[in-house]
Structures are given as C-alpha cells and as structure tokens.
C-alpha cells in the first residue's frame, strides 16, 4: 500500500522527527479549536460583567466569581427549563425509535414493493432546507389533519415532526442489511413472527447503531431553537435554548454565559460517555463482513 511518506523514511531519525512534529502541531491545533471555546466560556462566566466586555479581553479573570453558577441557576430558573428540555428530548427520542426502527427493518428485511424508491424519496427530503419546511409544518400542527387538534404549546408539536427521520432510518437500514438472512430464516422456521424477530433477535444485536440514533435524536431535540421558538410561545413551557435567548436582554452577560455553559453540560457528558458507541455504530454497517 502506497502512502504519502514511505515506511523507510519514517524509520529514519529525520523522518521520525518530522512525523512527530507534524503530529504534535496538528493535535495542538485541534485541541485549541475544540477546547479553547469551552475554556473561554467557563472562565468568561466567572468574570465580572465589565471585565467580560473589556477590550482587549483578559485570558484569566482578574477576580474569580464562582458564585455566578448558583446565581445563574436561580435567576434563570434553569431547573424548570431543564425539566422541559429533558421531557421534550426524551419524548422525541422514544417516538423516533418507535417509528424509525420498524421502518428501517421493513425496508431492509421485508423488502416491500417500491421499497428502494420509497427510501430514495425519504433521502431526497434531506436535500430540502429545514427553513423551507417551517411554514407547512407549522400550519399542520396548528390544525392536525383528521383530529383537528392544535398542538401549540404541546410537546407533541416537537415529537410528531421529528418522528420519521430519514437519516436515522438510513443508518438503521444499513446496519440491518449486514444481519445474516440465515439467522432470521432460522427464527421463521421456529415459528417466530416478524415482530418477535425484530424484538428478540434484531434489536439485541443492534445496540451500537441504536446508541448512535439515540444520541443523534436527543442532541437534535436538546439544541433545536427555531422550531421550539415557534411552537412554545408560553414561557413556562419553553426549552433551554429558547428561554435563554428570551432572557438575554435583561440578564448580565456573565449570568447568561454561565447559563449557556450549564445548559451544554448534559450533552457534553453524553458524548464523552457514549463516544465509543458512536464510533462503533457508525462504522458497523459500513463494511460487509
């Protein structure tokens, strides 16, 4: 296999020095790009408001204000908005699994008529800008077809539009395609129906991709702003992203910045805890074995 630098060059003293120098510089740049914004937000929250807007900015707070975290929690009423966001995110996660998993299984293993064309049409929706769908989706949830129900200020206004996610269905289908057909045929011979096969055989061996889809669903619902802004006009039912934007006018900058840091902690911890599952799930269905 040919590479940019031959193994012989890498084994030489100069080659090793160049390699590790380039590696260290690249890693340092990535570290600065990803870690420095977190550092700036955390230290900025513990600065005084006047110091936070000073030009040129200070790298370290001249006076540390750790009490800003508790003050931000109380003044921004973060407990209420955390509860709203968790409820919305968990609901969106569950309804996506309930819809996307059976849909992907049907497209992969049941092979319905025109299944490939249906999948192609679903994937084509990914090319449509999300902003172009705001008006028709809003009109739909304000007067739900058949039922005639207005879902404004209801978490269902978030859950229903998020239920059928084309990207998640594609990821799941790609993973299900790698499951040996002989395994499912043996279950059919033992008298198992399709629902039982999905529940007892397919889902237990699909934990990596289910973890990926779950994280994508939760993160998308947690950080979404435009759609919750439209469907939650009631301040008491708003999610974190909408509530923090609404209160930014009346709050000191360091209090607001502390609130933003606190709001991001759950998703950062979620990613750090499940990062191995994310990588395993994304690569599991990419190569046939």
From TrEMBL:
Keywords: Cell membrane, Membrane, Sugar transport, Transmembrane, Transmembrane helix, Transport. PROSITE patterns: ABC_TM1. This is Permease component of ABC-type sugar transport system. It is a multi-pass membrane protein. It is found in: Cell membrane. Its main location: membrane. It comes from Kibdelosporangium persicum. Belongs to the binding-protein-dependent transport system permease family. PANTHER family: ABC TRANSPORTER PERMEASE PROTEIN MG189-RELATED, ABC TRANSPORTER PERMEASE PROTEIN MG189-RELATED-RELATED. The chain crosses the membrane at residues 20-42, 81-106, 118-139, 151-172, 209-231, 251-274. InterPro entries: MetI-like (IPR000515), MetI-like_sf (IPR035906). Residues 82-274 form the ABC transmembrane type-1 domain. Signal peptide: none annotated. The keyword Phosphoprotein does not apply. It comes from the Bacteria.
């Amino acid at each position: 296999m040919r590479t940019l630098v031959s193994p012989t060059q890498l084994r030489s003293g100069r080659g090793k020095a160049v390699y590790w120098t380039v590696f260290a510089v690249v890693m340092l740049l990535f570290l600065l790009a990803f870690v420095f914004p977190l550092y700036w937000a955390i230290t900025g929250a513990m600065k005084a408001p006047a110091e936070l807007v000073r030009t040129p900015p200070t790298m370290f707070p001249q006076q540390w204000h750790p009490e800003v975290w508790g003050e931000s929690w109380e003044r921004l009423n973060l407990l209420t908005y955390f509860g709203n966001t968790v409820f919305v995110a968990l609901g969106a996660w569950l309804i996506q699994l309930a819809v996307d998993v059976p849909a992907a299984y049907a497209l992969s293993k049941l092979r319905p008529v025109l299944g490939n064309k249906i999948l192609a049409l679903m994937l084509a929706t990914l090319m449509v800008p999300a902003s172009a769908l705001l008006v028709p989706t809003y009109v739909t949830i304000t007067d739900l077809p058949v039922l005639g129900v207005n879902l404004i200020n209801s978490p269902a206004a978030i859950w229903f539009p998020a239920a059928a996610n084309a990207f998640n269905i594609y990821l799941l289908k790609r993973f299900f395609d790698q499951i040996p057909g002989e395994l499912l045929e043996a279950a059919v011979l033992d008298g198992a129906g399709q629902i039982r096969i999905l529940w007892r055989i397919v889902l237990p061996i699909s934990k990596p991709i289910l973890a990926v889809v779950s994280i994508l669903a939760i993160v998308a619902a947690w950080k979404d702003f435009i759609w919750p802004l439209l469907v939650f006009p009631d301040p008491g039912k708003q999610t974190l992203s909408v509530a923090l934007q609404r209160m930014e006018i009346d709050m000191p900058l360091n209090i607001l910045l502390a609130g933003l840091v606190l709001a991001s902690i759950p998703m950062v911890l979620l990613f750090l805890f499940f990062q191995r599952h994310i990588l395993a799930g994304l690569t599991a269905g990419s190569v046939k074995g």
